[in-house]
Amino acid sequence: MPRSLYWPPNTRSMAVISSEPTDTLLKRPHPRPQPGAPPAMPTLVFASDSHLNKHYARMTPDQLAKRREYLRDGLEQTIDYAIGVGADLYVHGGDLFDGPNPRAVELIWAARQFKRLAEAGVRSYLIGGNHDIPKSRQFGATPQRLFQTMGVARVFTDSTRVEWDVAQIDGLRIAIGGLPPDPRLSPDDDPFAVLDEPIQAPEAEARILVTHYAVEGRLHPLASEATISHASIAAVSEQVDWLLVGHIHEATEMDIGGVRVLFPGPTERMSFGELDVRCGFAQLEIAPGPEHADDDRRIDGRSDGRTSVRRPRAVITGRHIHIDPQPMRRETLRAGDIPADDPTAWIVAHVRAVSAPDQILQLRLDGPLPRETYHQLRIRDVIAAGSDLNFFFDLDRRRLTVRDETAGLAPAATGGVERVSARAEIARVAATMAANAEDDVARSIIDEARALVLDRYAPMIVDDDVPEGATS
Ligand SMILES: [Mn+2]
User: Fold this and answer.
1) Which residues contact 28 (CB under 8 A, 6 or more apart)?
2) Last residue in a domain, options 322, 352, 385
3) Structural domain contains residue 134
4) CA of 119 to the centre of ligand 1 (A)
5) At residue 241, does pLDDT exceed 80?
6) Same structural domain for residues 267 and 341?
7) Is 392 helix (H, G, I), strand (E, B) or coil?
8) What is the distance in A from the centroid of ligand 1 to the CA of 448?
9) Does 29 fall in a domain?
10) CB 64 within 8 A of CB 56
11) Quick one: pLDDT band at residue 179, thresholds 50, 70, 90?
12) Could you list the residue range(s) of the whole structural domain that residue 274 is in?
């Protein structure tokens, strides 16, 4: 039986919008099951947190361009999958873009993806996330709204109440609600408790709500932000069967007070802080409930849209689909293991052993290093080797300290161990040179050179001061 879903209703207008006649994506064969094939269950694909257009301050323009390809590839896999399995619904849970003003090239690319879904008969529902919703609503718009303007997606933009849409698929009414995050909420607010209207789902066999907030117990311990409590999730169990949640970059599924809560995780890892994060998305299959009889379909067709019998809940099953992210690795070297004799060659050999051309590699130096060894270490050579052998290389020195072997030189407060500051080391070496200078002229030249070098060097200190941990 042919499915009767079209989104948008008028597909002809989309052909007019298409400005790229060479777009072969639109010419792909229709992937949905052919007539005669056993009808699949209504299927929904849910992805979130793609962070397209993400900026990495320390990447070169070429690295950044390639990195953004990886980010796009994560999202594209979810869309290929939805089209490939003949999904009926596609939901994205926010942070589609890393910011509210993505570059045009990313917008155009994303527009093409949602057009592909629409052309394949997949209805898309989108909400913004904390990254792509402008902080000031007065002067901005969530970029996802472009896709609603194009007629290829429904975008829920009201953060003060849940908006709903009902899709009717194979005789099942599937209600999709959306609640984007409200940037005005304070950390003490429970987003479900401060809504202007109580959450009230329309009549349907399946009620699915998508949002982009932290949920109690799933928040990073250092984060402080508006969080949906378990109690307020349990309180909507008569209105919501499944709660789909973006924002938390950790794939998991749980039952909270009778509501199935699903976090798909991100479609790509964002930083070294997400090394252990599983990337992917979710597939939901929506089956008629056990008492669902064929004659219920006649009720669907009533022109007044009312139902005369209470219809059984659909049975929804979810599963996680894995996406292989860009290879990313962190290697830690204990400073105590670094030999005094040619420490640079020793470290470079270690870097070489764990390098790969597609990989984002972080080498972390951890612990106290004798000052003599530190002065022998050619940091730039290590960075050059790591950068040559990997897609991107980061040398993390935040846990590296220097230790004075000579008694008496040790700063009393730190017991002979201090945090490495290249700037302090330059100053220290210059001071020694000045003290040993042959005459006042030489001494003043050294002093001037020291001031100049330290002045030029200052901005680079920022590299050593990047805080650990990443936000979602
Ligand atoms: Mn995110």
Assistant:
1) 83, 116, 120
2) 322
3) yes
4) 28
5) yes
6) no
7) strand
8) 48
9) yes
10) yes
11) very high
12) 12-322
Task: Tell me the CA–centroid distance for residue 398 and ligand 1, in Å.
Answer: 25
Which pLDDT tens digit goes with each residue over 73-107? Answer: 999 999 999 999 999 999 999 999 999 999 999 99
At 264, the pLDDT band (50, 70, 90 cuts) reads very high
Instruction: Tell me the C-alpha distance between 59 and 370, whole Å.
Output: 31
Of 322, 338, 365, the residue at which a domain comes to its end is 322
Asked if residue 210 lies in contact with residue 93, where contact means CB atoms within 8 angstroms, the answer is yes
Q: How many domains does the chain have?
A: 2
308 with 273, same domain?
A: yes
CA atoms within 13 A on the CB side of 260: 14
Q: How many angstroms is it from 51 CA to the middle of ligand 1?
A: 7
- Give the Å distance between the CA of 201 and the centre of ligand 1: 26
Residue with tokens 């070489």: 352
Domain shared by 314 and 335, yes or no? no
Residue 105: inside a domain:
yes
Q: What is the average per-residue pLDDT within 145-159?
A: 96
| Amino acid identity for residue 246 in this structure | G
The conformation of residue 36, written as its DSSP 8-state character, comes to: T
Flag whether 470 is in a domain: no
CA of 75 to the centre of ligand 1 (A): 13
What digits encode the pLDDT tens for the residues 332-352?
A: 999 999 999 999 999 999 999
Q: From the CA of 332, how far away is ligand 1's center (Å)?
A: 27
Residue with tokens 């849940």: 162
Q: How far is the CA of 351 from the centre of ligand 1 (A)?
A: 31
pLDDT of residue 222: 78
My answer on whether 290 and 361 are in the same domain is: no
Can you give the pTM of this predicted structure?
0.78
Please give all residues whose CB falls under 5 A of ion ligand 1, grouped by chain where several chains appear: 49, 95, 472
Give me ligand 1 centre to Cα 93, in Å: 9
Q: Within this chain, do residues 141 and 121 fall inside the same structural domain, yes or no?
A: yes
Ligand 1 centroid to Cα of residue 242, in Å, is: 20
Distance 344 CA to ligand 1 centre (A): 38
Q: Are residues 183 and 90 in the same domain?
A: yes
**333, 427: one domain:** yes
Q: How far is the CA of 249 from the centre of ligand 1 (A)?
A: 7
Q: Are 271 and 141 members of one domain?
A: yes
Q: What is the DSSP string of 243-255?
A: EEE-SS-S-EEEE
